[in-house]
Amino acid sequence: MTAVVATIGRRLPRGWKDFGRQLLIWFGFLAVYQVARGLSGHDRAVAIAHGHWVINAESRIGDLFELTFQKVASSSHWLELAVSWTYWMSEFTVLGLTLLWVYLRRNEHFRNFRNWVLLAGVMGLVGYVVYPTAPPRMFPLDGFVDMLAQFASLNHGSGVIELASNQYAAMPSLHAADALIVGVTLAYIVRHWWAKVLWLLWPAWVCFSVMATANHFWIDCLAGGLVAVLAGSVIHRRRIANLIVRLRHGAPEPA
How many angstroms separate the CA atoms of 75 and 71, rounded? Predict the structure, then answer.
């Protein structure tokens, strides 16, 4: 057993000690995030009022595109399954596996990737406290349907989910923020062109899924994208500054 542990440790980019430290950081963050998210902004009246404001704002700007996305998704049972499982799996499962893959295979990019995700999460928590917002599924009179409750055994009414989640944490959408972070990071570091294309499409698919399932408004997704951009500008500030300097001097960025 000791030999197996030692062999695996040699294959880890920085050994067992660093790997354990990264697991502690990630799962520690998840624990704190879930507790803080669960405790923030539980005033239903305020959250519903903010949700109505979003609906009115979207109606004035253009249209409730979420309703169209819901009709498209509900036209196929398989598409319903796809968007529903994307909603459940994209935030922590895909994100966690992506962090693990980058750590093991592209370790030189891991620290910035991890910090980008963590900072976006903290910014999202601030949004939940400052502006608790009810998701579209809480407005059936406006035409929204809780797709997850229609056919899935796992939904927001499930005991564990209801206990651990904040039903009014829609603004900003961290599904959208994390999908953009994952998509941009993976598109940058994977080697095959088709993989780059797929990862660049990932944020759009996630946003479609969370809107089609009536869990986020498009304004929530826009706010989530803004969170990702702001967090990324902090984490990658040196790279951005160097790029600006090189562009001003007409020199290409090194590969």
Answer: 6
Checking if the pLDDT of 157 tops 60, the result is: no
Identify the band that residue 177 occupies on the pLDDT scale cut at 50, 70 and 90: very high
Residues 6+ apart with CB under 8 A from 237: none
pTM reported for the whole predicted model: 0.86
Backbone CA torsion sign across 141, 158, 154, 35: positive
List the structure tokens of 255: 């590969």
Q: Side chain identity at 60, as an amino acid letter?
A: R
Whether residue 252 is preceded by a cis peptide bond, meaning omega within 30 degrees of 0, is: no
Q: Name the nearest CA neighbour of 99 among 26, 46, 157, 161.
A: 26
Question: Are 65 and 211 in contact, with CB atoms under 8 Å apart?
Answer: yes
pLDDT category of residue 100 using cuts at 50, 70 and 90: very high
The better pLDDT of the pair 254, 216 is held by 216
Q: How far apart are CA 87 and CA 137, in angstroms?
A: 14
Cα–Cα distance, 122 to 109 (Å, whole number): 21
Joined together, the tokens standing for residue 19 give: 């790997």
Q: Which two three-digit tokens encode residue 187?
A: 């598109």
Q: Where are the alpha helices (DSSP H) in 133-217?
A: 147-151, 159-164, 174-189, 193-212
Alpha-carbon span 134 to 63, nearest angstrom: 18
Classify residue 165 by burial, with Cβ atoms within 10 Å: 0-12, 13-18, 19+.
middle
In angstroms, the CA 131 to CA 171 distance is 7
